[in-house]
Amino acid sequence: MIASWVMYAFGSAVCFTGMTLVIKKLFLMNVPPLVLNMFIFGITFTGFIIWNVINKSKIHIGLSVILFLVLASVFAVFGNYLDVSAVKNAPNPGYAGALKATQIILIALLAPLLFNSNISLLKILGIILVLIGAAIISIF
Questions:
Q1: How many Cβ atoms sit within 10 Å of the Cβ of residue 24?
Q2: What value does the mean pLDDT take over residues 115-130?
Q3: Which of 8, 61, 66, 90 is deepest in the core (most CB within 10 A)?
């Protein structure tokens, strides 16, 4: 049986593939990155409000959670701007996506320190292979 997180990750990959290709098309239609992000995330925000209302989600958050939400949002604003700018300027949006995927290196190496997650030698080998792939894409 495949773990649920694996299915979610593959589903996410399909959705973000579609989003990236649509974003590239919008850039070819001369939509500026800031305007594009404003609309995509404004519509996304509205969608999540509707989803939470339909699910009757209870929203009870404390100050420490709010601070982490603000921090995540700051990272999201700059990260998404840089992401769509990379997609806009890359000759193939897949190249930008591949280099963005190198985030797994930082996540995998920082998670054991921050969350007491485990990391094995085999996983470290996988990280090294990701670095090699990123180097091939960005250099050649």
A1: 18
A2: 89
A3: 90
pLDDT digits (tens, 9 = 90+) for 97-108: 888 888 988 898
Judge whether 127 and 108 are in contact, CB under 8 Å: yes
Which of 40, 24, 41, 34 has its CA nearest to residue 82?
34
Please give the full DSSP string across the chain, using - where no structure is assigned. Answer: ---HHHHHHHHHHHHHHHHHHHHHHHHHTT--HHHHHHHHHHHHHHHHHHHHHHTT------HHHHHHHHHHHHHHHHHHHHHHHHHHHSSSHHHHHHHHTTHHHHHHHHHHHHH-----HHHHHHHHHHHHHHHHHHH-
Contact by Cβ (8 Å): 103, 116: no
Give the tens place of pLDDT for each residue, 51-67.
Answer: 999 999 998 899 999 99
